Recover the amino acids of this structure.
DNA sequence: CTCTGTGCAAAGCGTTTGCAAACGA
DNA sequence: TCGTTTGCAAACGCTTTGCACAGAG
């Protein structure tokens, strides 16, 4: 039994070939939009339905197996859930990368300013990647 | 001629009553979703169309008069364009507030880590506001 | 007066739902 | 075997478009 089979089951999801392939695409690709995911999936499963993609994406999000990342001026992408991190997106080619940033000082400041009890950060930096410069 | 009339014209937009009211709602409310905006607008203009709201929102975004703010697990809200700032959203009541945070250290770090030329930050903090705690 | 903006209705598009058949455990 | 998942088609909801009339400049 491979890793994703186990993880899917831990999330009360049956390890169907479609789901295992989705998990694998997410693992390999890192960040992928619904339409790109569908394009990749239909290579392996010529008759897979968009409805299946959506149903599985939604189930996986509900079970915290994956997460949605909202990108300014672009479609959302999805990634496997991992430790807290930020994102950086290239305005030219659209590529999304992870970055590991310490936001604790920022959070302290924001807490003082707002009186909120802060428990989550969503930071998306935009710019131009090395390859596109 | 009031402020918004002038600003709209500078953006090549005619200062219609509907647009002036939208600008005013955005100014007073700070951050508002399409559906809330429509609900407020229809009070003043009983026969205003959602199409008008959308057309104007899109024109105003294109002209950088307003900006979209994407919120995790919620609908986007719109705000008048102003100096760079971050947002904090209450997970209980949904209220969105501005916060002024210095992200320069974060940007330096991210630049080193990613080799991107960074020019924009979108930070949305989530938590529980004072009133909801 | 001219050109832009508005309101309405219809179209468009991404996403969700219902259902019968297929499949995982 | 039993409950879940799939694929298809239809439905849905949000957003956009086309058009005739109204209104801003």
């Amino acid at each position: 039994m491979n890793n994703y089979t186990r993880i899917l089951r831990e999330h009360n999801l049956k390890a169907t070939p479609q789901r295992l392939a989705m998990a694998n695409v997410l693992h390999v690709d890192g960040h992928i939009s619904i339409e790109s995911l569908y394009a990749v999936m239909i290579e392996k499963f010529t008759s897979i339905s968009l409805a299946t993609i959506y149903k599985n994406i939604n189930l996986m999000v509900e079970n915290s197996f994956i997460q949605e990342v909202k990108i300014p001026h672009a479609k959302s992408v999805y990634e496997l859930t991992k430790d807290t991190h930020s994102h950086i997106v290239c305005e030219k080619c659209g590529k999304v990368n992870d970055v590991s940033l310490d936001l604790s000082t920022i959070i302290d400041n924001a807490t003082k300013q707002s009186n909120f009890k802060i428990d989550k950060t969503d930071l998306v930096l935009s710019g131009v990647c090395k390859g596109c410069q």
